[in-house]
Design brief:
- Helices cover about 35% and strands about 20% of the residues.
- The protein is of the alpha/beta class and about 280 residues long.
- It folds into 2 domains: about 10-45 and about 200-275, 3-Layer(aba) Sandwich (Rossmann fold); about 90-195, Rossmann fold.
- The radius of gyration is 19 Å and the shape is elongated.
Length: about 280
Amino acid sequence: MALPPHVRLVIFDLDGVVYRGDEPVPGAPELIGWLHDRGVIVRFATNNSMVARDGYVERLGGMGIRTTAEEMVTSTSATVEHLRRHLPDVRSVLAVGASGMRDELLDAGLDVTMAADAAAASVGGPLERTFDAVIVGLDPELDYGRLAAAMSAVAGGASLIATNADARYPTPSGFLPGAGSIVAAVAVATGVTPLVIGKPEPAMFHAILEASGVAGAEALVIGDNPDADVVAARRAGCASVLVLTGVADADAAAGLSGERAPDAVVAGPGEIRSLLEARVS
């Protein structure tokens, strides 16, 4: 796949592409502002389910990057969009996750019970009600009771949906277990394979394309992770640019092949404008 001749939508990964820690990646604010000025649709896509979209808007604003909640797509908001478009009968959910995920699900009008509350109410016994779906994200306070509640809800007929399946979660002090470790525990306990929304599965990008009304052939994904961003882009029918400001360096990029191979590799966001000058309206 080559870079599209006309780009209507640019999807940015966040950590390692737009910012590193509390600092913007050099060139990222200017590139995003330029795309906004040219009328290109911009979206930011993150597998993180713990922070609501407004939290990311505030964070980027502090870095001088203008954005809106509509432009921000978390794995939770992508899950909500997938439910709205493809599983509209899902109304009651048992949620394993943090407060940001709860807020996103409630804002979408879903009937949400947190696994912690269900576990406390059941006191180790059967759940008091059934659910349409169990939605699993990263829960830093996970305990056995919450896992048991999720297992019981799936056994009662709930679908199993994972906001993402990241095995590890990056922090300033190193990696911690990611949502995928929790999803794996529920999947093993129930024997049910979950529907995964986040990258590298294409559902998140499909949700962005559908909501934006843009075909994959007119979209470009900018990411730093070949195994997540690039693979998800290819599976969704989008071109991708790998920036060497995050997890991949030049040596790693040179060895990429198959669906992990991006359509272009650049040192940083500042080089992307030259690629897009003739491709955006």
